[in-house]
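Before a colleague's protein record goes any further, I have to sign it off. Thanks in advance; the entry in question is below:
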Amino acid sequence: MKRPMKPEYAAAKLVATPRGKVELADHGEGPAVLTLHGIMGGHDQSQLLARSIAKTGFRFLSVSRPGYLGTPLASGRTP
């Protein structure tokens, strides 16, 4: 029985913003599109959303909201 392949994710980094640190994965080339995850996951789920939108031609900024994956909860509530 074959195991399903795990998707490859772009490396994420913490970026300082006026509201606090936010984990961000920047991938692709072209016009920028911000992708946000829902209740579960983080930048990894945002990247899956990006892949379902388009394979090429866009630069995706996939973030983890405060309290998810590498974004500290102290960064505050999502407006």
User: Anything to note?
Assistant: The chain is about 15% helix and 30% strand.
